[in-house]
Structures are given as C-alpha cells and as structure tokens.
Write a structure and sequence with these properties.
heterodimer, A: alpha+beta, 8-stranded mixed sheet, 4-stranded mixed sheet, 16 helices, disordered N terminus, B: mainly alpha, 0% strand
Chain lengths: 544, 304
C-alpha cells in the first residue's frame, strides 16, 4: 500500500502542472486575424498558433543557427528517393486539448491529422496564404496509424523545414467541422497552451494546456508558466509606458523609441539596467533591398550600359543614411542575400557595391549618360532619363523617398516618385510593371533556399519581384535545390550572390535588430531566430 | 422618411465606387507572400470581386436590404458579430463623454454668455481658442504620460471584462481626454446660441416680470437655446462612433472606430460597407429623432 502511495506521489510530481500564478503579460503591436493555421499570414496570429498547435518538427530553443529537432515526431524524417520522399513517425500518446468537439472523449493525435492539416492548405476554399509551401507535394500516405509518407514532385532537401513551420501544426477534423467559420476563434491543438479568453483585436489569454505531453527541460516539466496574457496595443508610447510601469513583462516591438533605451554601442541604458531590466538583441532573419525591374525599358536588361546605370544608382544610394536616420541605428548593413542565423549565410562575404557617388558619376559618363542643358543626365541615345521609384503614401516611405532623391541628385539623375496603395504596388510588381522599389523578405524557414529562390527566373510574377531571368543563376539554383545544406551548396550560393551583384539586380541594404526588453522577473528568455512563442521555455519569478 | 432612400442610395454608390477606385485589390493582400496568378484569381472569385461591377453593386444593395454584410475578408468574422461586440466598448466611452462634455459646455457657455465682455468671458474664450488649436494627439500623449504614467491615476491603456471595470478604470482617461478636447469648440458654439437668446424680447419680459436671473437663464434661455444644442449633440453621435478611432487606438479600446481603421488598413470591404451604411442610417434616424425632440421642446415647431 505504501508503495502505491509512493508511486502515486512520484507520478504527481512528474505531472506537476504549470504554475497558474505565473502569468506572462506581453503586447502585440497589431491586431491578430485569427487562429486557424491555414487562414493567416500575419506574425501575431502565427505566434499564438505556434503556442497552441504542434508541428511534426520544431527547432532547438538554444541552438544557433537554428537546428531542426523532432516535436511530435519520434525522430527527424527519413529522406529517401533522392530527396523526394519523407517518412515521419508520430509519437503515440499525444492528445488534443479537451474540447466539446470531441464529445467528451480523449482524442489522440495520429498521422491522419497531419494529412488533413496539410491538405487544408491546398484547398482553394481556405485561400491559404502559405499554400505555396505545400505545392511541391505529389501525394501523402499513412501506411499505419502513426506513420506519414510524403512524396514530393521534385527532390527537396529543405522540406523538413516546412514540417517545422509553425502553421503546419495538426488540427483535428472534428474541431474544424464543428466550428466551421468560427474555427479561427476556436483553436484546438495539442500544443503547450490553449485559448482561454479571446476578445478580438484586444485581448488574447492563453492558459497552460493541462493535457500537454511530458516535455522536460533541466528536470522541469514545460511549460513553467500558467498562461500568457496578450494585449493588442498599436501605439508605441502606450507600450513603452506600460512596460516602464511594469504592466508588461516582455516588450518585443519598440523600434521607434529604441534610442531612448539603447546606447550608441547597442547596450541597455544604465538607468534601465539598474532596475534589473534586460535587453536581448538579435538580428531578424530578413533582408531589405532595393530592386530594379530587369524587364523595364529604362533600367532593365543585361546590356553593359544598363548594368552601368543600375550600378551607378546603387553606388549613389547611401545605405549608411538609411541605417542611421531612418532605422535610428537599429539595423546592420546586409551584404549577402541570406541573412545571419539562416543556413547558408556567409559572414565573410562583402558586397562589392560601395557608396561612391564620384565613381558612380564616372561610370555614367563612361557609358554615355551625359548631362543635358537642365543639368540632368540623359539616356545614351539622348532620350530623357527618369528613374521611377515606387512607394506607398506612408510616413516611413516618405523618408525613403527623400533619401532616394538625395542619392539620385548626387549623380544628376532625375527621380519620379510613384505613389500607390500597397496592394496595387504588389499587383504591378507581379506584372513586372514597376521600375524600382524597396522590398523585404523575412525567413519562412531558416534555410538559404527561402532567400535564393527570390531571384529564380520561373518565380517571376510571384516572389521574384525583380523579374530577373538569368540562365546562369537559374542553373545554379536548380542544382542547389538537389543538395542538402553543406559546403557544395554554399559555394553555389556564393556564385549566385556574385552574379546577382555583377548584374546589380538588387542593392542589399540592411537587416533590422530585434530589441526585446524584459522585466527582471522573466527568466530563461532567449530570442529564437524562427520560433516566436518562446513562452514554452520561459519562467517567471513570483514576488514573495 | 422617403428622403432616406435616395440618401442611402447616394451613400451606397459613393462607397462602392470609392472603394473600387481607391481601395486596391484585396486579393493581393490575402494571397500572402508568394502567389501565382491562378491563386490570385481564385481569391478574387471567392470574394466575388471578379464579377462585373453592376453584379457586385446589386449584391451590396441586397446585403443592405437583409442587413447581412457577410463575413470580414481578413478575419472571417461575421460583420454583424463585429458590430455587436465592438459597439459596447465604443458606447462605454462615448456616452459618458457626450453627457459630461455637454453638461460642462452648457454650464460654461451660459456663464460666459451671461458675463459677456467681462474678464471671465475673455479669459475663457482665449482658453478655448488655445485649447482648440492643440491637436487631440497632443492631449492623448500628454495625458497618458502625465496622468497615467507619472501620477499613476489611471491605467495607461487597456480594456477589461466588466462594465464597472471599464467605466471606472480603463475608460476614465479616454473620457477625460474626450471631454477636454470637445469642451473648447462646444463652449464657443453654445455661447453664441446663448448670446442670441439673451438678447431676445422674452428674456427682457421675464426680467420685467421680476423673475430671478437663475430662473431666466436656466429655464427660459436654456430651453430656447437647447434646439441648436440638441442638433449639435445628436449629429455628433454617429460620427463619433466611427470617428473616435484615435482615442480607441491609443487607449487600446476594442471599439468600432478602431475596427474601421483596421478594415481600411486591410482593404476589408464588407466591414467598410457596413460601417458606411450604418453611419448613414444612424445619421438619418438621429436627424429624425432630433426633429421630434424640437417639437417636444417647442410646440411652435411644425413637422411636415
């Protein structure tokens, strides 16, 4: 009998629930759109979804660069058929959070749930913004309850990252069918948290999922906290004041006021450090760049005089001013098309395009872009030369317009600013009808392929916004797709980066810092380059 | 009443053509980061924006007839549900704001009208001019910093789960800001209404009859000056519901104004359509109600 009590006691310790008194309070700077994984594309909804649903794979919280590890899978996928077949086994004994949709019974996670969840991305009626990640799938089979076999149309050694993508978590068919259009507000997953209270665009309250499987770290069962309280606060002043007052525990998004809490050296100001506040600074896995439309009559093409024009514009643009003035010092110069923290990034690579208006002017002179009577340069054939730069009517874009104007003035090139709404710019961009525009790309998964595909010819009209078609680039890219991450693929990537630079398709500008501020009571936080809901690993020190 | 139909039709046409002219194609936002032309067409089809304009317009008119604007394009939430859940927070702020600011403005306007030309009158009028010249944004930022952050009298922002928690806690500072912002223009406007009445013959007659100044002002003058005041207050209501977006956004109040801004940012036409129609209908109904109140206040007013 005593043995039975002892065993029950041990089991109770092992199954110790997260402490409900430990509530993490954070903010989002924009409203979420919902929590149905296939229907969202915004960062905020994705972060909550990451906490509620479980993908097959995930990333090691501490490893840098990001490293894939199994999540609900028993092991990393077995890749066969030269990169065309992925076999994954789901761990038995994982259950969905209790929900009325299951009519009182426990609902186990099986391979079929992943099949259903992936197919939902490809169902046109769901209008999934991330359908493109799954379009390479030729077929999915479940030879037995826990085994999933995914066959791809083409070899793809990066597909494992798609299985770790936070929106690829398993949903239960019963819950989706029970809630229909309301499924965005009634998420039911197997993840560490579940939705407790939801006031759209205002408050999202998560609580630790009591049925979450046993995941241990440093001898403790995760999650350590009892819940997360998310307030939507769009305005920076409110978020900053609320954090300073101690109303919130972690503040992720204070880029506009960063100089008020960060020194020029990138350290937390002493007055805040004295209060025990901590700063976690990392580079977002993104690139920001200016692109030229390679099909445009004025700046496009691979003729020498066109390359010279693009090169001269790129050399006139002062990236340092963009970082210093517009970003307020909160970004670093980007040299390589793959940002830091992403597999394939080359920290030693240096862009050959330096800010040098004098050399830019000489280059234009050499290729026949002579100045006319009005002081502006003309095309080599004597036609007027006007660079049309497109941007949205936002305050931020006006700053970019001014910088572009100053830059082109330094090489006597006339600038025309084309203003349009964001969807219209995307439409024109997809039709290769813009001349030049600024763009940004943040990693969907931490692999270089996600960035190098941006210049692949067949992606014109989709992600290749420069409409760049170079057989040399495309051949290398196709070859790189057949290779796993390693020195051979990195060599190809370097060649592709130089080729892009030689053709001056883009001017890479910068990658932004993410400055995360934490109250002293927050323990164990480390910003992950890909995961956003680090709440699973965080602890909170309660005041005594 | 019959004027409702052409007015509403005008609003419908204006909203429809404005959205299609300047609103941008929402399919390009909903398509996500990488979308091929086929997917974009699929989205356009599912939203119904691939249909000819006249078909889309007819659908819009039918939606008005059955008061069902479908679901939000970006969140899939029913538009009716959006309004049902956002109206409460908006009214929690706007009703007290309107009542307090009207009472205070009436009292102050009557005071300065009574003491017209005095130092008090001039001081309050100068104060009103200065107050009116300052942007609402400045009031919000300064009040939030001083009263909420520095003095800790109010929460910086947020919204709770109960009416009492909101009314006494989260809504207090937004209401204060709203009252301060609206006082200056209201006092100036109401002062002119009172001045017009104070010089009327019936006021002189009332005084000649020996009535006290308090009774003359609060009963006779106030009652006659109320008609334009009511017009002003009632016409503010629909505009305030949708137009209080700055207050709602800065104080994170999940109200209708904030929802309107979100809808515009997301090119969420079902929500934009519904807001425009509801505001137009509310304006017309409130104007009608104002006419009925005039009649109640002044039997000489004839409704035709």
């Amino acid at each position: 009998m005593r043995l039975l009590f002892l065993l029950l006691g041990l089991s109770a310790v092992g199954a110790q629930a997260a402490d409900p008194a430990k509530i993490l309070r954070i903010t989002f700077q924009a409203a979420e759109t919902g929590f149905d994984p296939v229907k969202v594309s915004d960062y905020y909804s994705g972060t909550v979804i990451e906490a509620i649903f479980d993908p097959l794979l995930t990333y090691d919280y501490l490893a840098r660069p990001a490293k894939l590890i199994p999540n609900t899978a028993t092991a990393l996928p077995q890749i066969g058929d030269g990169g065309k077949t992925y076999t994954v086994k789901v761990k038995p004994g994982i259950y969905f959070a209790d929900d009325a949709a299951f009519k009182g019974s426990k609902r186990e996670l099986t391979a079929l749930d992943y099949v259903y969840s992936i197919r939902r991305f490809l169902d046109p009626k769901n209008r999934s913004p991330y359908a493109f990640l799954f379009e390479g799938i030729a077929g999915i089979e479940t030879p037995e309850r826990y085994t999933l076999v995914i066959r791809l149309k083409q070899p793809d050694y990066n597909f494992a990252h798609v299985l770790a993508f936070s929106l690829s978590g398993a949903v239960a068919r019963e819950a989706i069918e029970a809630y229909g259009d309301e499924s965005a507000a009634r998420p039911v997953g197997t993840g560490p948290f579940r939705l407790k209270r939801y006031v759209r665009s205002s408050k999202i309250v998560l609580e630790a999922n009591p049925g979450y499987r046993e995941v241990m770290r440093d001898g403790k069962r995760l999650p350590l906290i009892g819940g997360v309280e998310i307030s939507i606060m769009e305005e920076t002043q409110g978020r900053w004041l609320a954090f300073q007052r101690g109303d919130t525990d972690i503040e992720y998004q204070l880029a506009e006021v960063a100089p008020t809490f960060i020194t020029a050296e990138g350290k937390l100001k002493p007055e805040l450090a004295r209060r025990g506040i901590r700063l976690e600074r990392s580079i977002d896995p993104e690139i920001i760049y200016l692109y030229f439309n390679m099909q445009d009559r004025t700046v496009g093409g691979l003729g020498k005089e066109k390359i010279a024009l693009r090169r001269a514009i790129a050399m006139a643009y002062k990236v340092e001013d963009q970082i210093r003035i517009i970003r307020k010092g909160q970004s670093i110069r980007a040299h390589y098309p793959i940002p830091p923290g992403v597999a394939g990034h080359d920290p030693d690579y240096r862009s050959s395009i330096a800010h040098d208006p004098r050399a830019a002017n000489a280059l234009l002179d050499k290729f026949g872009y002579r100045k006319g009577a009005d002081g502006h340069r003309r095309m080599p054939n004597g036609d007027p030369l006007v660079i049309r730069y497109s941007s949205t009517p936002s305050e931020r874009d006006r700053q970019f317009d001014e910088l572009m104007k100053r830059s082109l003035d330094s090489i006597s090139v006339r600038l025309e600013i084309h203003k349009d709404r964001f969807p219209e710019l995307i439409k024109l961009e997809n039709q290769c009808r813009l001349m030049m525009r600024g763009a940004a790309w943040i990693a969907d998964y931490p692999d270089g392929d996600n960035f190098m595909q941006l210049l692949y010819g067949p992606n014109t009209g989709q992600s290749n916004n420069a409409c760049y078609r170079s057989p040399e680039y495309d051949q290398r890219y196709e070859k790189s797709r057949l290779l796993p991450h390693g020195p051979e693929r990195d060599r190809l990537y370097r060649e592709m980066a130089r080729l892009m630079e030689t053709h001056t398709v883009w001017l890479l500008t910068d990658s932004r810092y993410r400055n995360v501020l934490m109250q002293p009571r927050v323990k164990g936080f480390m910003k992950h380059p890909v995961l956003h809901a680090e709440w699973l690993y965080i602890d909170i020190e309660l005041l005594r | 009443m019959w004027q409702f139909i052409p007015t509403l039709l005008g609003v419908v046409l204006l909203v429809f053509f404005l959205f299609n002219w300047v609103g941008g194609d929402p399919a390009y936002i909903l398509a996500g980061k990488i979308a091929n032309p086929e997917r974009i067409e699929e989205i356009r089809r599912s939203l119904g924006i691939d249909q000819p304009y006249w078909v889309q317009l007819w659908i819009f008119i039918k939606q008005i007839a059955v008061a069902d604007f479908g679901a939000s394009w970006s969140t899939n939430e029913r538009v009716a549900q959006i309004f049902a859940t956002r109206l409460g927070p908006s009214l929690t702020v706007l009703l007290p704001l309107l009542i307090i600011s009207t009472v205070l403005a009436l009292a102050a306007a009557m005071l300065v009208a009574y003491y017209r030309g005095s130092l008090t009158d001039r001081a309050i009028m100068i104060g009103c001019t200065v107050g009116q010249s300052i942007s609402i944004l400045v009031y919000i930022l300064v009040f939030q910093y001083l009263l909420a952050y520095q003095l800790g009298w109010f929460p910086v922002q947020g919204w709770g789960g109960t009416l009492a928690e909101n009314l006494l806690g989260y809504a207090a500072l937004p209401i204060l800001v709203g009252v301060v912002v609206s006082l200056a223009p209201d006092i100036r406007l109401y002062r002119s209404f009172f001045l017009e009445e104070i010089n009327q013959d019936y006021v002189r007659t009332a005084r000649a009859k020996g009535l006290g100044e308090g009774r003359v002002m609060w009963l006779h003058v106030l009652r006659n000056a109320s008609i334009p005041v009511i017009t002003n207050v009632m016409t503010q209501i629909p505009g305030l519901l949708a137009g209080a977006f700055l207050i709602e956004r800065f104080f994170s109040i999940p109200g209708i104004g904030r929802e309107v801004i979100l809808a515009v940012e997301r090119s969420d036409f079902p929500v934009i359509k519904a807001v425009s129609v509801y505001v137009a209908v509310a304006t017309m109904i409130i104007n009608l109600a104002a006419d009925l109140v005039y009649r109640a206040l002044d039997p000489r007013v004839q409704l035709k």
